[in-house]
Give the backbone structure.
Amino acid sequence: MALLAIKKYPEKILKQKAASVESIDAHTQHLIVDMIETMHAARGVGLAANQVGIPKRVCIIDISLKEDNKPLIVLINPLIIEKEGIVEDEEGCLSIPGYMTTIKRAERVYVRGLNREGKTVEIEGTGLLARALQHEIDHLDGLLIIDRMSPIKREFFKRRYKKSLKDKKE
Ligand code: CO
């Protein structure tokens, strides 16, 4: 097991659409184990493989930090097959540390993918789980929370973020 480095905005791999996993081999299993360790160490509720530099369609979600008794979810090649409603709530991202913003998401989603054993699973998510599923699948499509903002808000964010990075270096 190993902790992986989490890629931070504006690293290019975060903008890259991740490729489907063709076979869930030992390599994939190893990646999943390391991603779980990395997510827990960072106290995140989700992590996508491209956030740790691997452009493959693998993501994990663990909302048990916020809601008790929720199982860890591993999804390979996930796809949103249905969504309903719209809800706005605060969201952050391990790749944009220290930043929270309100994002509109579907209230309920149905996602189909493979679990770590390669079995097809369907997950229905509402609340935080629905939000996390959409956030992680966005990552696999090369989208960050800032891509879900209005253009004005995004420009404002970029300027402020660049300045904060510069201030850190000085
Ligand atoms: Co994120």
About this structure: The radius of gyration is 16 Å.
